[in-house]
Amino acid sequence: MSYAYLFKYIIIGDTGVGKSCLLLQFTDKRFQPVHDLTIGVEFGARMITIDNKQIKLQIWDTAGQEAFRSITRSYYRGAAGALLVYDITRRDTFNHLTTWLEDARQHSNSNMVIMLIAKTAANVEDAFINTAKEIYEKIQEGVFDINNEANGIKIGPQSSPTNPNLPTDGRNKNSSSGCC
Amino acid sequence: MFRNRNWFNRNLWKPKNVHSLDHLKYLYTILSKNQNVSDGNRGLLVETLRSIAEILIWGDQNDSSVFDFFLEKNMLSFFLKILKQKCGSYVCVQLLQTLNILFENIRNETSLYYLLSNNHVNSIIVHKFDFSDEEVMAYYISFLKTLSLKLNCHTIHFFYNEHTNDFPLYTEAIKFFNHSESMVRIAVRTLTLNVYKVDDKSMLQFIRNKTAAPYFSNLVWFIGNHVLEIDACICKDVNQLSGQTRLSDLIAEHLDHLHYLNDILCLHIEDLNVVLIEHLLKKLLIPMYIMSLIPRNNLIFSEQNEKQSLISTALSLFLLSQVFLIIKERQLVHTLANILLKGESDFIFETEQNLRITNNILINKNEELENELMVYTENSEFLENPLAVFLRKKNSINFDKNESVCHSFATSTYSINITDEEKEQRLAQDTQIQTGSFLQAIFENLHCRENDYSVLFALCLLHAISSNSGIGKSLLDTFIFSSGSEYKTKYSVQLIENLIQITSISCQAGCRVRLLTLELTIALIKKLVLIDGKSILLDEHYAAIIGVKEESTSLLRSFYKNEDIFLDMFEDEYYDMKKRSLNIEWLMMDCNLLLQPTNSPMTGVEFSKRLPCGEVERVRRAIRVFLLIRELVLSLSHETESQLPLTDRNTCISIGTSLDLNNSDLITCTVLSKDGNKTRRFLAMDSNQLILVEPHSRLLGWGVTKLAGFLQDIEVTGDKEESKCLHVIIHHTNTGSAYSAKFLFDDHIRCMAAKQKLIKGRAKARKKKMMQIAKLLDIPVSNQPSSSSLLPYNLFTNRHQPISSLLYSSCKQSQPSKIISNFVYSLKPQYTLNIKIVTDNVSETYKNTPSTSCESSSRVIDNSLNTEEIPLVNLSYKIEENIPPKSDKDETTTLNDGDFLHKINNINVSENSVEDDITDKVWELSSGNFPGGSVVITLERRSGSRWKEEWTIQYCAKFQVVRTSFVFFIELQKQRVVIKFFVKSGVKTAEIIPKLRAVFQDDCQSSTRIYE
User: Fold this and answer.
1) B138 touches chain A (CB under 8 A)
2) Given a cut of 60, is residue B968 above it in pLDDT?
3) Of B97, B138, B259, the CB nearest to A70
4) Quick check: B100 and A42 CB within 8 A?
5) Residues of A in Cβ contact (< 8 Å) with B101
């Protein structure tokens, strides 16, 4: 699949706030949320369009790795965006936000976009896309060094930053036509 | 509905409810009818596989029969069949997602066991996916990671086969440990840690025997390579931004590695740790880090590549400190600290014996794994991966079989591929590395040469070592917290002297020591000498630090200006210092430190990590240096700060406080705030604050504070349009925020009065604070014209009247009684010499405190001497540099008062020029003519009574008769005070000398010699 940019996200937040469900909910529209079914995944990807450009989002859940400091550290550094999730029905998950933010600030590069998501809110879609928009703006402003993949941003395989809109191949069902 | 979608098979009916057993059965039929993947059914298969995931999880949560059906029909085998065809990434990705969902979400343990039981999962793991497809790679590695999160003592057996010695989940994953995608690398690391965490003996045995050596050596090899890259990056001119980001990435990556190693070590798997530590020490820490500490020309290289593996000393100090900051595992850090501190040959692993056996097993078993890896390396994009290189280097990776492991430091470091000739060379090398040479090398780096580039890292390393909980206390006690039998101190004298020197250099104008270095130095000094808040510092070192404090005071004094900005900066620096605490690990993540210290703020390097640029920053720096050292001195002397902050904000008036304002000046005004609100208030002032009050509801004449702001920060301007109006901006109110409003007064006169009052109040508040600062800096303030504010400070009290003339004049008015002449004489700012001359019949007290203020020079003399009996005390005074003690006698000259004054001024000049070196001066005081009586000599340090020496020397009448001039020398030698007495005239000296000797021998602090 061709894309102009690839943004790597991580999902952070207390355990049990439903991070992995949020991930699936966003990355795969085919799974419809039903009341008697909760499905989560650790990884997902999805193509979105911003400013007529194909942008691929890769989202990595960091759950289960909190015990290892090296892992948390590396995740933060490798991501362009972080989605900080809390559950509005659980006060403690809100209270821990500051700790998460401090962690993020300490480990991530200073340009990382952090988006706060209240779990029960319906605007999951917006959260992901707005984060991407913000990262995209930062790229436009030249804040992010896009040639440095350690930031969690990759330029598309068949495109250069000057001409990112090459035709997508036929397999790509999700992509809306982003060509100029 | 299903009729609409009958395009594949009319005989199938699709149940309405997608979450039901029937639906799964339907999906099963689709799968079984579409076992061959073709372009036509690809879309259908993908949707089927996706639906299976959904329905299985629904079943797991709601209906167990769903899962039973799935297992009964062995549907996983279909997955495998699909995979084995060249199904394309579209189907592959879906399959992997389904598997991910399945293993991530299953809660029913039995279901999980069933899923794992028929080895299909392992077959999927070893399937050769198209890893060049980014999406497949990501889903695959997530799948492995998801599985690793399910590992425990029970499930491990589904993945690790004891009989075939097979553990595909682990061995497949570690092939990607250096994948170009960071997220893949992270997933691999997570997986390995999850595997190690499982407490299963035979599995761990497998990990150690079959994979630990190659995996860990690769890891270590990579880190080493990385470090060489960092070294190259630093050596290059990295002024460009791209170079800087590259360096910062490399450093961050290196820290990731270190944290990863630490995470492995923290799992406390003894067998694994032994192998890992061994590799780390022998392949990285010793040959690369530690050996780089030794200056290059002291090393002999037996092989070219040994030399190539060396890095710059500063970088090795930096990297070593990172090791000690991050890793606390006892075995590793203790061994490493042992080598560093002792620098000798006795680090032998406790488990040495085991290790040798393991190694032999390793060597045999490695072959298999290597072959596997070789196959892999051949047909993947991975060729750059040093797994291949590793194979080439195979021999060097396995530990030596022939020689016994680690007999000595040197052999263990260089025991790889040793030939006989080389052994001899090494022997030669061994002799060059002497005990403690690494520690000496670290100490060597504490000397500021051109700048403090490596000083900072050396400090950091010492700090990290001394704070590392994994290092045995006795080891630290021996090398850091003591200096052997010689001094009997509880800290290393050499170290503390180095540290004091750094602080002293920081106090010089134009020096190249960064604030961070000073801060770290101070932190280390405190760490060394403060035990439970009490200082164990030797007097001589304490004296040196007091000396440094004077130097810092003197530095700041040279910048002292009666300007607003000075006060603002002073307060700002104070609050900034109080706010921040030193987090060394956090600080050391900054890659900018590895670049040569800069002074340009345009590099984006924060102020404390660079040198000052321009006059304003130099002032700021001087202020900070002064504050830091002052704080150090206070904590060493166990005192609490009494003079800072300049205004104690806690004692200030705050909002809501009721004030008794009877008899206070109050001006009525209307406050018009920005949002248009009008309120009636009364304006009052105290020495610091502007206060707006409203009348108290019950107490007559009292007011309740509505606003209080610091006078020093107000801006008052009149209004051009309206003469009754003032614009007031307060930059700091006690709520913290700035405040701006318009004050409307009853008439023009009141308005003018208020304006004048406020402006005066501001000036006064500032003046008061400037006086406080002046007091801190020992600058005389009262009644001094501003031009003379920079009087030479030591001895300036004697500027107007030399001691001798003072004494003389006082003698003239004296009444007959016992004389007690009391001189307090400043030698160096930190010492006070007190000479008390006690004669039989006249008493006089003269106290002269050198550097407090000029008041003391005009102090009234209490008692007077009887004119007839005054002895003329003729003081001669001289300063010389590097006087050989023996020749002193001849060079003593007597000066008259005028000369004396002249001399004093000269002394100050010469003192400033040799400010950093206090060892070269000999002070000499001589009194020409003494009455009978005794002389009490006290030498004490000015601040506080911590240290004081006193000798009383009786002269009796003999002194008068023989007119012996009494001379003593005080020599400040390398922070030691030596007092030498010279008794000049010959006749009665024999009687005096034994007395002096008796006095001095009792005093253990001073070494005394008496010259004749």
Assistant:
1) yes
2) no
3) B259
4) yes
5) 24, 39, 41
Q: Name the residue among B826, B788, B849, B855 with its Cα closest to residue B557.
A: B788
Q: Which two tokens stand for residue B134?
A: 């980014």
Read off the pLDDT of residues B630-670 as tens digits, 9 standing for 90 and up. 999 888 888 888 777 887 777 777 777 888 877 778 888 88
pLDDT at B107 over 90: no
Chain B interface test: which of A39, A76, A112, A148 (most B C-beta within 10 Å): A39
B695: preceding bond cis by omega (within 30 degrees): no
Q: How far is CA B420 from the centre of its chain?
A: 46
Cα-atom radius of gyration of chain A, to the nearest Å?
16
Residues ≥6 apart with Cβ < 8 Å to B782: B853, B854, B855
What is the rounded distance in angstroms from the CA atom of residue B845 to the CA atom of residue B863?
7
Residue B614 Cα distances to B260, B603, B625, B743, angstroms: 43, 15, 16, 40
* pLDDT digit string, tens, across residues B690-724: 888 888 888 788 888 888 888 888 888 888 888 88
d(CA B756, CA B762): 10
The residue among B167, B843, B206, B257 whose CA lies nearest residue B249 is B257
CB B712 within 8 A of CB B769: yes
Q: Which residue of A has its CA nearest to B61?
A: A37
Cα B744 from Cα B683, distance rounded (Å): 11
pLDDT at B248: 84
Q: By the CB < 8 Å criterion, does A76 face chain B?
A: no
The mean pLDDT value of chain B amounts to 68
- Only one residue has tokens 């469900």, namely A21
Residue A1 confidence (pLDDT): 62
Taking only the tens place, the pLDDT of each residue in B60-73 is: 888 888 888 888 88
Within its chain, how far is the Cα of B546 from the centroid? Answer: 23
The 10s digit of each residue's pLDDT in B821-833 is 333 333 334 444 4
Q: Which residues of A touch B19 (CB under 8 A)?
A: 34, 36-37
Residue B383, pLDDT above cutoff 50: no
Alpha-carbon distance of B769 to B772, in angstroms, equals 5
The band of B571, judged by pLDDT with boundaries at 50, 70 and 90, is confident
CB of B587 within 8 Å of a chain A CB? The answer is no
* Contact between B523 and B582 (Cβ < 8 Å): yes
B394: Cβ–Cβ under 8 A, 6 or more apart, which residues?
B366, B370
What's the pLDDT band for B347 if we cut at 50, 70, 90?
very low
H helical segments located in B313-404: 313-326, 330-342, 352-378, 386-392, 394-397
* Predicted pLDDT at A58: 92
Q: Is the ipTM above a cut-off of 0.90?
A: no
Residues in chain B: 1012
- Cβ–Cβ contact A96 with B under 8 A: no
Using the Cβ of A179 and the Cβ atoms of chain B, whether some distance falls under 8 Å is answered with no
User: B165 to chain A, minimum CA–CA distance in Å?
Assistant: 28
- CB-based contact A42 B90, cutoff 8 Å: no
Which residues of chain B make contact with A144, given a CB cutoff of 8 A? none
Q: How far from the centroid of its chain's Cα atoms is residue B941's Cα?
A: 31
Decide if A30 touches B, using CB distance below 8 A: yes
Contacts with B11 (C-beta within 8 Å, 6 or more apart), sequence order: none
Q: How many angstroms away from the CA of B451 is the closest CA of chain A? A: 29
Alpha-carbon radius of gyration of chain B: 41
Is the Cβ pair A74, B19 closer than 8 Å? no
Q: What residues does B1011 pair with on adjacent strands?
A: B982
Give the chain B residue whose CA is nearest to the CA of A68.
Answer: B263
Residue B997: the pLDDT is: 52
Q: Do B58 and A41 touch (CB under 8 A)?
A: no
